Each structure stands twice: as C-alpha cells, then as structure tokens.
Amino acid sequence: MLKEFKKFIMTGNVIDLAVAVILAGAVGLVVKGFVSDIMMPIIGHFAGGVDFADMKYVLSEAVVSADGTVEKPENAVMYGQWVNAIINLIIVGFVLFMIVKSYAKMRKKEEEAPAPDPGPSEKDILIEIRDALKK
Asked: Domain extents for the chain?
C-alpha cells in the first residue's frame, strides 16, 4: 500500500497539481493586492472619493456606557464590502479573460506555423535510382 501511494504521489499529474495550487495562492495574493491597493483607490477617486468598504446601513446604533465602553455593538449591513467584492470579481474576471485570450492567440500562431519540408521520401529516392539505372 505504501508503494502504491508513493507511485501515485510521484506521478506527473499530482506534482503538476501541487505546483498549480501553490502558484494559484501566490497569484491570488498578487491579484488581491493589485485590486485593493491600486484599482480600488482609483475607482473610489472617480466615484467622488468614496471608500466602498465603509458604506453600511445601520440597523441599530451601538450602545456606549458613560465610561466609554461599548455595551452593545453596532448592528449594520456592510454592503460596501459586498460592492468591493463585486468590483474585485469584475476586475479579476477581466484580467483572466485577457490572459486566456492572449494565450489562445499565441497558441493559434504556434499551430499555424507550417511544418518544415521533410524532403524526398524513401520511395521517391528509390524511384530516382531506378530511373537512373534504366538510362
């Protein structure tokens, strides 16, 4: 059973999958940083300086005691974070669309490249030799 497990783990597909999962995690962090640190401030600027993450609908206010401690926290619907998530999805979807489209275009160019001329076949060479011997 241990040998079978070792054989399974060492197959190319499992190792490729492991590399893909690790790489996807790293790419996810880069994309999240790009969206939250670069794109969202730009979108917020053009939306009138609004930070969507702070947008909320308060259902009940927080109850604060005289000494400043919170007795009952605020109950609010944080719809701004949901708007951020939707914008994040649109940006990530667009970036992935552009990557897949460019990959398909590059792959199409590789497939269209003509194969090199293999030269005369063995049969053609033998026919030439036979015709030369007849003369």
From this structure: 2-112
